[in-house]
Amino acid sequence: MADNRSLIEQAYSAFNRRDIDGALALMTEDVSWPRASEGGRVVGKEEIRAYWTRQWGEFDPRVEPLEISVEDGGRVRVRVHQLVRSLQGEVLSDSEVLHVFTVNNGLIAAMHLGDEADTTGPSAAFAHRS
């Protein structure tokens, strides 16, 4: 169980450093990920790479884990502080959100936003898109 906690901490650290390769190395080949700033989902490492590259070209998001709860069945719930800034430094969103991960064989297989099914539109944190 501690391994799953470490895995998730490493993933957040890599994301915040903009280390795409480091973050993707922690994921399964067919990882499923929400497109929080666009809506919908992407599947696979290369789709995540393309999504994050687009996202970081428009916003400066940072996510810091506040509480990590490792559950049975490879599920990890993470309460995070999410700060989204414009590329000019303006705060667009400053909130706490819930991320729920599924871990299979020591790798991240999926991430969901909160307890609900992902919506088709962007999350509230990215509602300020121009």
TrEMBL record:
Coiled coil: none annotated. Residues 8-110 form the SnoaL-like domain. Gene3D superfamilies: 3.10.450.50. It holds the Pfam family SnoaL_2. This is Nuclear transport factor 2 family protein. It comes from Paracidobacterium acidisoli.
